[in-house]
Every structure is written in structure tokens, then in C-alpha cells.
Amino acid sequence: VLRVVAECGRSRARAGELRLPHGDVPCPVFMPVGTRGTAKGLTAAQLAALGCRICLGNTFHLGTRPGSELVRRSGGLHGFMDWPHNLLTDSGGFQMVSLLELSEVSEEGVRFRPPHGGEEILLSPEKSMEIQNALGADIVMQLDDVVSSTTTGPRVEEAMHRSVRWLDRCLAAHARPQQQLLFAIVQGGLDPDLRLRCTMTQRDVPGFAIGGLSGGEDKAQFWRTVKFSAERLPRDKPRYLMGVGYATDLVVCVALGCDMFDCVFPTRTARFGSALVPWGSLQLKNAQFAKDFRPIDADCGCSTCQR
């Protein structure tokens, strides 16, 4: 899956390409998040024009509305989005944190009460794989037991061990292993001992993700945990750091050896009136810009700055 073409002599940074069913993807790579099949504020054609060759879809949300069967009948998520490039679907596990008030975790899986009403949903490892197989993304993620990165105590260890067991169930349930690459998600919170004891690297999977971070922990703790985790993942397989998208974090975590990243930050910050520029960010709703007709960045070639 991963071809490494260059490695930094002073850090663990590396350049390479992911060899995926819908084309090779240069890495390190940032993957925009299209929760319901589209990145908010952008069409698929605009994403492609920006050079994006892989983006995300959300298994839980697509599986509830419009439903995986409808997406499958429309040609899978590629056809549904009219997207000719690669896709990655998460497992739905993150909703254990984002919809904490509406979910309940057991060995069987995660039970959700839909935020918009309706029947209770059981998302088990088998159900997650069934939905992801129907969606047809190039990379699919195991269902993991996700706890907030600031959680401590026995719940973190329980989540780590359960995530390993759920990986084995995902591997057994995966119906299209040749067409869809199943990545494992290493858990263990901020505890290096739990990360070390997580036995997922003993499984023969195409790639590994570092999960359970970027949830409000101290920045030094975050970087320490990323460094520790990345050092213990196989050199010849992709390392995907989930939920990370701030510019500084991307640079640091590439230097720590990570290859893949995703985050809602770019689209969310744009919707709230901020623009990312080489020297930081601009809050375009501030009064000082009310009568400023200059481009956001005179040296930028994007359609917004060219107007």
C-alpha cells in the first residue's frame, strides 16, 4: 500500500505514495472530511481541482441518512458523490465521543439514539463493516471503542483491549478485503504503557491509525503520545493520525513520522468567517475588513482571491 520514496535524515518525516484502487496518493496527505458525502461549502469537482485525491465519508451518518443501501444502489459512495478518486470511511466509532449523551457502549457494540428521533441503532463491528462494504470506500476503518483523550483510569484500558477484540471481529466480517483496505486503530489514551501493550500491530492489516487523541489534551502530551505511537508502528505501512488538522500540528506530526491526517478544521473555520493564510488566519467578520476590497492573499491563485 505504501511506497516510501524519501526519508528525512534529521527527523522521522518521510515522503511516499499510497497505492490505492482509485489512483496513487502522494503523502504526507491531508484528507478533507465530507461527513455526508460532501465537504461543506465545496463541490466534488472543486475538491478535485484543488488536487485532492482522497477524502473522507462518515459511516454512522451515511448509514443512517440516506442509508447504505441507497448509496450502494447509486454506485457506492463514489457514484453517490460523483467522485473518481479515493475515499476513506471512518467506522462510526468517533460518534461515541461526539454523541456521548446519545450512546451506550458494550461488548456487543455501540447503541445510539438517533439525534433526530427514530429507532435505537446498534453499531457493532459486523454492522460497521456491512455499511462500509456497501459504501465501497477504498480504505475502511475498524470499529474501535473511543474514549475522550482526557479520560483516565480503567475505562481507557478497557477501550484499548475491546478495540483489539473488535478489530478481530471486523477482520472476520470484512467481505471485500482485496477491494477495500481495512486499517486498524491503535488506542490507549495518553498512557504509553497501554499504547505499548496494544497488540494490534500483531495483526496483518494494510495500515494503522493512531486514535483517541486531539480531544483537548495538553499539546506536549499530544505530541509525546504521537511520537511514542508512531515509533512503534511498522515502517512499511501507512500511519494515519486521526482528527488532526491545525497547521502546526501537521508539520510537527509529519516530522514525528505520520503519513495521513484528517480534520473538519479547514471547512469549519471557513464557514465561521476565518481565512487561512501563510502568516496565520484572518477573521473576516471583524470590523476592520468591512470596507476592505483587497484580495485575502494577493499571491494566491484560488477563485476567491482572484476576485
TrEMBL record:
EC number, as in UniProt: 2.4.2.64
Q: Answer whether the UniProt record assigns the keyword Iron-sulfur to this protein.
A: no
Q: Name any one GO molecular function.
A: tRNA-guanosine(34) queuine transglycosylase activity
Q: Specify the protein name.
A: tRNA-guanosine(34) queuine transglycosylase
Query: Which residue range or ranges hold the tRNA-guanine(15) transglycosylase-like domain?
Result: 12-306
Alphabetically ordered keywords of this record: Glycosyltransferase, Metal-binding, Transferase, tRNA processing, Zinc
NCBIfam families of this UniProt entry? Q_tRNA_tgt (TIGR00430), tgt_general (TIGR00449)
